[in-house]
Amino acid sequence: MKKNTFKKIIRNIHLWLGLTSGIIVFIIAITGCFYAFQEEIQNITEDYRFVEKQNAPFLLPSKLEVIARKELPNKTLHAIQYKGRKKSAEAIFFHYDENKEKNNYYKIVHINPYSGEVLEVNDMYSGFFRWILDGHFYLWLPHEIGQTIIASATLIFIIMIISGFILWFPKNKKAAKQRFWFRWKEGIKWKRKNYDLHNITGFYVMSIAFIFAITGLVWGFPWFAYGYYSLLGGEKSLVYEEPTSKEITVSSVVENNLDKIYMLMQKEYPNAVSIEVHPPETTTSPIAANANLDDGTYWKTDYRYFNQYTLEEQEVNHIYGKLENASNSDKIIRMNYDIHTGAVFGLAGKTFAFLISLLIASLPITGFLIWYGRRNKTQN
Question: Rounded distance, CA 62 to CA 80, Å?
């Protein structure tokens, strides 16, 4: 196959895939921009997230559980999370059924951990940032449909990154001079400027865009997540499964066990930025607990499980266990969210991710204008 013929085929692939998926790629990128500083913005605008630091102990989970259940008596309490001396505790109520989306809920009762005062009941399935997240993950469609469309568009985007690099690659040194930087002289037409914006911007964001796409596909397609994890050398299950607690009839043994696990976690993780305990939802569920060791990220979280009756610790064979038991491949998968958002590099990483997402959002626009300009042969 001749070189010109090969590039023509690649150009057509890049063009038609871009035209069919461009609007979806734009939505994914622009919603990613809006969501980048979600945590920082909410910390500024939602004062109920914070409390005045006191020289007093926190109320135990059993006390916060009683307070929270009075606010939402008919909901399932998923977890109670302590987020430090200056932040409100969160009682998290959560239910998800992909077959009955209308019955799903995700609510947080914010409580002063010193006094037990209820500060706010927040519906996490409403509000601006939830709307943005629904667009980013589901295109504002029913979850099963939207996730498939988003994931498929992301897969197409990877093909476009590869085909775009092939088209960008200069054929000689002279051509290379115009591929790395904007060399606009006076009188250059807007078509040429737009072409450069698409090609040069695409080259510089290509590697980060590829990382965004890969980490996004981990959530989009189970087969991709398993393939990616296996390629990294992973051997554990990616599916979260709780160990079971053999049911016994002596209920008094269980009465204060949630508090005991919380106090154990406090003792073993004195520098944790947050500690979360999960009341057993059934008579065979464990008491799950986790401690996050790094402010702003999630991958260093230790996940632990205890028999709800005997408090014996139970090991698991999936990636959501202790960090010390995680292999390098486990850690990369655990980092997936933090890499995707840039949080793995702190605020600078989030800022960088925001800027790259904004540039990615511009690519479908400049690409469409290239096609439109050539199609209509407009003189400028």
Answer: 9
